[in-house]
Specification:
Structural class: alpha+beta
CATH superfamily of the largest domain: Butyryl-CoA Dehydrogenase, subunit A, domain 2
Strand content: 15-25%
CATH class of the largest domain: Mainly Beta
Order of helices and strands: HHHHHEEEEEEEEHEEHHHHH
Radius of gyration: 21 Å
Number of helices: 11
Shape: globular
Number of strands: 10
Length: 365
């Protein structure tokens, strides 16, 4: 990732204060029932945080992908129940890159799976049909931003969710993952355009995987923080459990996992940003994102295990905040491809490139 500049540091500090002021256990429990926090979204939108990395000329707040990644890492740390990644890094990127207006409000993006939405021109309108499974945040979005195909090319469509049939679903953490059916939805030409350069299903899946890796890095930081705090407070056999060598060793191992996850995720954001800026080979960005998703998923497995071992039974209760982080770790590691899928892709790419390219791939950002 690019070295933090003063503006990014100020952005992170501001985001941290905002989330600390508005995210607490009561709000997270309410969001688990309701699917999201509209009140938190309104606060974030007033601060323009969902629009970071969207160009100002498209209605965004400006900034870089690494700026958005820094904010998203903070959001992951606080388990923020809002579609922050989907609005800016995914849907906003698709709209702005295709010359479409970026509306206010929460946005959903898809599909990054094998689902297909088809579009056909009819007079002065476009007709869109398709079935999309487990679209993140669809039922709370003000617009669905979808990749559709007209038989010859990819297009980006901005769809009013009220015109779709949405069946609510949830991931393990209680976040909306909804099935969407579009049955001959008519769109004006102003709401659909050819997909811009570099925008497609593979790129959307790649960005989604990066977003989840960054969010997992933040959630891991929070789980480690809670574990260290608990170890310093909990007394067993007359001593704080943090004084036992076995606990110290596990927390140290947890710290190493967190450091590796953060480094992998934020480095991948930097590689993808440079790819977007100077047109470096897409393969470099794909390898960086694959490595980040694999490493953060592995850290999520080990970190959640250690966190719950340190906390004991209290860690899984609704009354304690740890489960908000660990449930998201388990859910996010499966989204936009789990570590097995990305490891298979990474291994296939390395095999295809040949032995001489292995070392450069490992050492080149």
């Amino acid at each position: 990732m690019n070295a933090p500049n003063d503006i990014r540091l100020m952005l992170v500090e501001s985001a941290t204060r905002l989330f600390a002021d508005h995210v607490d256990h009561k709000m997270l429990e309410a969001a688990k029932r309701d699917g999201w926090s509209e009140a938190l979204w309104q606060v974030l939108e007033r601060a323009e945080l969902p629009r970071v990395s969207i160009p100002e000329e498209a209605g965004g707040a400006g900034g870089t992908l690494c700026d958005a990644a820094a904010v998203l890492r903070v959001a992951g740390r606080f388990a923020a129940p809002v579609p922050l990644a989907e609005t800016g890094m995914l849907a906003g990127w698709m709209l702005a890159g295709s010359g479409l207006a970026v509306p206010r409000g929460p946005l959903a993006a898809g599909p990054a799976r094998d689902d297909i939405a088809a579009a056909r021109k009819q007079g002065n309108k476009w007709i869109v049909s398709g079935k999309l499974a487990r679209v993140p945040w669809a039922r709370v979005a003000s617009r669905l931003v979808l990749l559709v195909h007209d038989g010859e090319r990819d297009l980006v469509a901005s769809v009013d969710p009220a015109r779709c049939a949405i069946t609510p679903g949830r991931n393990l953490a209680g976040e909306p993952r909804d099935d969407v059916v579009l049955d001959d939805v008519a769109l004006p030409c102003s709401d659909i355009a050819p997909a811009g350069a570099g925008i497609g299903r593979g790129a959307l899946r790649q960005r989604g995987a990066l977003a989840r890796a960054i969010m997992m890095a933040g959630a891991l930081e929070r789980a480690l923080e809670l574990s260290v705090q608990y170890a310093q407070q909990r007394v067993q056999f007359g001593r704080k459990i943090g004084q036992f060598q076995a606990i110290q060793q596990e927390l140290a191992r947890f710290g190493g996992e967190v450091a590796a996850a953060v480094a992998a995720a934020m480095s991948a954001a930097g590689v993808l940003e440079r790819h977007t800026a100077d047109g470096c080979e897409n393969g470099q960005a794909a390898l960086a994102v694959a490595a980040a998703k694999i490493r953060t998923a592995q850290a999520a497995h080990e970190g959640a295990l250690i966190a719950h071992q340190v906390h004991g039974a209290i860690g899984v209760t609704d009354e304690y905040v740890l489960h908000h982080s660990t449930l998201r770790l388990w859910a996010w590691r499966e989204e936009y491809g789990n570590e097995v899928e990305w490891a298979t892709m990474l291994g296939s790419a390395m095999q295809a490139s040949g032995a001489d390219e292995l070392w450069p791939a490992l050492t080149t950002n």
